[in-house]
């Protein structure tokens, strides 16, 4: 039931910008905890037989959490989901691109009703518990993920060593198993040419910058994912604090750059934003790359009050709704790239016009 | 001179390496040198592979293939992975691999995190003793402080608390 709703509707909780602080620049925050079962081979060594045993243990625990702790999580194996549905979860950022490609019956996903909690089962680790919230709320994400983590620890024997911490399949996650990240929209920092230098500095202080869809993806439309690199030797609180402090600095820098551009070249800025709005509301064919770049400019226009009447939620929703799987799910059929580009243009136009008239009522 | 590593065989490989501005000398037997060399494969980023490292010291390049039999000997009793499997995949086999290959994995952790220890969350259920131990360690530090500050009454209290906690272990 829960999953069906998340698969058919665009809405997931992190899109609700109105419920998150600094949500104009920090689109969402995410925390991920990597956990493994004691003595059970890590997922890359699992096969049909021991994979099912492992999955059953985890499944039983989640059932107990639902019945005994009063939760309402939905658990599905990846072979129960179509390729398209898995891609929907990837596009919503709920599961990793790798998890969306596989389809065995001992891999799975656990979700809550608004999509703020999503656990990947037998991805790189036995469990990766994630919490997603709108805006800059890394601490709150951790708090919620930890609560779920505490519950799972009551029902499962988790691999832990006093010196190495939580034991993970890749040595780079050992310790806290914590990856905290924020999705940032930094158009003015990019425009002012400071982004490369900033990223180099961030790399030197142990932060990783990635594109919209995580590992190995390029930055598109001025959207960047910033996360901690080191998982051991620092407490969870320190890791979360560091990310929050750095995010605040980037927010400040982005706001200053926006002010400066608005002051130094207002016409050029309005031109860029106006053109983006024109393309988005008039294009008949648009690919997802162009759409994302235009949506970035439109978002800046909304933030600066140059474009009025569009809710931040709509902008977040559109970023996901224009992706291939979401388009095809909505259309109810498979589409060629060209068909998708045509349909994408229709969806964008509909959303932008509808939302503007909604808001004016 | 005996091998620094196993302290049993004679050292025939003498390595000098600059590490973070410090000169580090190592005297190893051939078996231990091969083991150490094999693990340097982990350093994919800095291209510090065995043929280069040992080759430059031994005068002739070492063939990685030759090293495999030596390292293949230990396998994890729980999952069957060898350190070679781990090195090649970059993935650990199971929770027990961590203790089985503790020494072999040391250079990897040193590279990733400077070999720092976990200071974060401890699981409530399986971690009760660890929590207790951490508390005791903390109290022992406070005890030392109290003694050096000549706060003897406090010191006695702390000492008693440590005793109670230690009984629970
Ligand atoms: Zn030796
Ligand atoms: Zn193992």
Amino- and carboxy-terminal Cα gap of chain A? 33 Å
Rounded average pLDDT of chain A? 92
Shape of chain B: extended
**Largest interface between protein chains, with number of residues from each side:** A-B, 41 and 33 residues
Spatial separation of the terminal alpha carbons of chain B: 43 Å
Average pLDDT of chain B: 71
What's the structural domain tally of chain A?
Answer: 2
In short:
Chain A is 50% helix and 15% strand. With 361 residues, chain A is α+β, with helices and mostly antiparallel strands. Chain A has 2 domains: 2-259, Glutamine synthetase/guanido kinase, catalytic domain (Creatine Kinase, Chain A, domain 2, 2-Layer Sandwich); 265-360, no CATH class.
Explained architecture:
- Chain A has 361 residues and is an alpha+beta fold.
- Chain A folds into two domains: 2-259, Glutamine synthetase/guanido kinase, catalytic domain (Creatine Kinase, Chain A, domain 2); 265-360, no CATH class.
- Chain A is built from 13 helices and ten strands.
- Chain A has helices at residues 2-8, 48-69, 83-91, 97-101, 138-155, 187-191, 195-204, 236-264, 266-282, 288-303, 312-321, 324-331, 337-360, and strands spanning 26-35, 74-77, 108-111, 117-121, 127-134, 160-161, 165-166, 178-185, 207-210, 223-228.
- In chain A, α10 runs antiparallel to α11 (312-321).
- Chain A is globular, with a radius of gyration of 21 Å.
- The model of chain A has no long low-confidence stretch (mean pLDDT 92).
- Chain B is mainly alpha-helical and 169 residues long.
- Chain B has helices at residues 30-39, 50-58, 64-71, 83-89, 97-100, 102-113, 128-148, 152-168, and strands at residues 13-19, 22-28.
- In chain B, strands 1-2 form a two-stranded antiparallel sheet.
- In chain B, β1 and β2 form a beta hairpin.
- The longest helix of chain B is centred in the last third of the chain and has 21 residues, at 128-148.
- Chain B is extended and about 55 Å long.
- Residues 38-71 of chain B have low confidence and may be disordered.
- The chains are: A alpha+beta (361), B mainly alpha (169).
- The structure holds zinc ion (2 copies).
């Amino acid at each position: 039931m829960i999953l069906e709703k998340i698969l058919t509707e665009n809405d997931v909780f992190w899109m609700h910008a109105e419920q998150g602080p600094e949500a104009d620049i920090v689109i969402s925050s995410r925390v991920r905890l990597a956990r493994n079962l004691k003595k059970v081979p890590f997922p890359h060594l699992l096969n049909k037989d021991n994979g099912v045993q492992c999955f059953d243990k985890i499944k039983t625990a989640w059932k107990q959490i639902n019945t005994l702790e009063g939760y309402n999580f939905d658990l599905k194996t990846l072979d129960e989901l179509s390729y398209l549905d898995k891609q929907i979860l990837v596009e919503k950022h709920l599961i990793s691109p790798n998890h969306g490609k596989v389809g065995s019956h001992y891999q799975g996903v656990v979700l809550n009703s608004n999509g703020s909690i999503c656990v990947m089962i037998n991805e790189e680790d036995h469990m990766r518990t994630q919490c997603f919230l709108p805006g800059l709320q890394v601490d709150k994400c951790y708090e919620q993920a930890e609560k779920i983590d505490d519950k799972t620890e009551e029902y499962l024997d988790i691999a832990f060593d006093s010196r190495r911490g939580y034991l993970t399949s890749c040595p780079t996650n050992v310790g806290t198993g914590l990856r905290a990240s924020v999705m940032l929209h930094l158009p003015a920092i990019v425009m002012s040419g400071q982004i490369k230098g900033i990223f180099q500095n961030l790399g030197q202080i142990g932060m990783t910058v990635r594109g919209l869809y995580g590992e190995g993806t390029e930055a598109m439309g001025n959207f960047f994912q910033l996360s901690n690199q080191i998982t051991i030797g620092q407490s969870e609180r320190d890791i979360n604090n560091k990310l929050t402090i750095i995010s605040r600095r980037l927010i400040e820098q982005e706001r200053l750059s926006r002010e400066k551009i608005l002051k130094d070249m207002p016409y050029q800025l309005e031109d860029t934003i106006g053109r983006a709005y024109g393309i988005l509301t008039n294009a008949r064919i648009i690919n997802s790359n162009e759409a994302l770049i235009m949506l970035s400019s439109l978002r800046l226009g909304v933030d600066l009050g140059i474009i009025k009447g569009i809710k931040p939620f709509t902008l977040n929703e559109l970023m996901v709704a224009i992706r291939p799987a979401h388009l095809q799910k909505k259309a109810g059929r498979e589409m060629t790239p060209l068909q998708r580009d045509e349909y994408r243009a229709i969806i964008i136009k509909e959303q932008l016009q509808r939302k503007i008239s909604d808001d004016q009522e | 001179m005996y091998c620094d590593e196993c302290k049993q065989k004679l050292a025939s490989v003498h390595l000098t390496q600059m590490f973070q501005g410090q000169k580090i000398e190592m005297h190893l037997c051939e078996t231990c040198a091969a083991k150490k060399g094999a693990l340097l494969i982990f350093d994919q980023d800095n291209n510090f592979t065995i043929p280069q490292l040992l080759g430059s010291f031994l005068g002739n390049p070492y063939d990685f293939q030759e090293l495999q039999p030596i390292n293949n000997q230990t396998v994890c009793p729980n999952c069957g992975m060898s350190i070679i499997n781990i090195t090649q995949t970059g993935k650990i086999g199971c929770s027990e691999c961590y203790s089985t290959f503790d020494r072999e994995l040391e250079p990897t952790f040193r590279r990733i995190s400077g070999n720092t220890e976990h200071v974060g969350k401890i699981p409530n259920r399986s971690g009760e003793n660890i929590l207790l131990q951490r508390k005791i360690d903390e109290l022992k530090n406070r005890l030392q402080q109290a003694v050096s500050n000549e706060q003897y009454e406090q010191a006695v209290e702390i000492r008693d608390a440590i005793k109670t906690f230690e009984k629970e272990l």
